[in-house]
Amino acid sequence: MSSPSRPTLKSVAAHAGVSVTTTADILRATPEQLSRYHADTVAKVRDSAAALHYQPNRLAAALVSGRSRTVMLLMERAYEPYFARVARAMETLVRDAGYEMFVVDAAHFQTGRRGLWPVDGILAVEGEAWQEVALQLRPQVDTPLVSLGTCGIAGYDQVRIDLPAAMAAAARHLIAQGAQNILYLDQQPLSAPNLAATYLDPFKAAAAAIKKARRSLVRLATTQPTAAAAKTVLLDYLQQQPRPDAILCRTDDLALGASSALLEHGLTPGREVLLVGCNGMEELAFYNPPLSTLAFPVEAMCAAAWEMMQQRLDQPGQPPQRLDLSIPLVVRMSSSQALK
Question: Given CB 3.0 to 4.6 Å as the disulfide criterion, which of 171, 194, 261, 274 pairs with 206?
């Protein structure tokens, strides 16, 4: 017994009583594009597609239209909370617009491979760090490329979050709470290309604010970007050096390790030592005490990047855009009490 044939656009169009062109347009259109069709026509096509269990052939659609309606999110360490938040927020935006998205780990990509996926565009998180990979992966030289994060790719659309300004603001907050001796808990760079924007510039901005207030500063760096590494390094420091009044951390993971180290050393974050993290990890609000953090505007950043991508798809010849977003400081118990 032969299996039933797979429904096609032609069979959906016949079932709905409209043309194949109209059927294809409605099934592939974005919500904005649907406005040019009567609601009854849209409903007929969609009901017919559902009744026939129609599934679009994306490869065939790409061959006909030149668009795969698929985008790539290029990033590293997608398992970490911050990058996972970016992927989740971006996927929601992409799917709502009728596109599909897949993630490529830039750190594990083998350079020298080209044209692997027929994507319509590439969204590169921390683009400057992965510029070579991002440019290699474009199926065509004019494939849209939008970067987002603390650094971007020059000559292409960018949404940047201003980490140096945020670090300076966090330093001023600690100074206003009475901190005299501040420890900057950093991590060794994971990649050289974004060394300045992601590591050096934020530290320099915080250092400048601390120097201006005539307070002391010590920089301590971990070899790994983990809470465990931060705890080990800070415990060793506390056993050998006078304790700081405040600790400003390069990431929330480091702040978690610092909080654990302080508690183990008999110090309470927010009482004897002020503590501020960076990234905006949601879980920090539920620690005891809750930890202050520089909360990266993930949703706003992703929304702006996706808007740039859609504009680039519709108007490929427009000049590159750049948008800079500020990073708010969320003050919680770990830094809300002024030191006596």
Answer: 171
Q: 214 burial class (0-12, 13-18, 19+ CB within 10 angstroms)?
A: exposed
- Picking from 199, 19, 329, the residue whose alpha carbon sits closest to that of residue 207 is 199
Q: Is 339 helix (H, G, I), strand (E, B) or coil?
A: coil
Among 188-192, 237-241, 244-248, 254-258, the minimum mean pLDDT is found in 188-192
Phi and psi torsions of 19, nearest 5°: -75, 160
Question: Comparing C-alpha atoms, which of 128, 88, 85, 123 is closest to residue 104?
Answer: 123
What is the helix (H) or strand (E) element at residue 272, kind and residue range? Answer: none
What residue ranges define each of the domains in the chain, with the CATH number in brackets?
9-56 (no CATH), 70-161+298-325 (3.40.50.2300), 163-295+329-336 (3.40.50.2300)
14-34 tens-digit pLDDT: 888 888 778 777 777 656 667
- CA 313: distance to chain centroid? 21
pLDDT digits (tens, 9 = 90+) for 186-221: 988 766 666 777 889 999 999 999 999 999 999 999
Q: Where are any strands of DSSP class E within the chain?
A: 70-75, 100-105, 121-125, 145-149, 157-161, 181-187, 216-222, 246-249, 274-279, 292-295, 322-325, 329-330
pLDDT tens readout for residues 321-336: 999 999 999 999 999 9
Nearest in space to 307 (alpha carbons), one of 177, 144, 176: 144
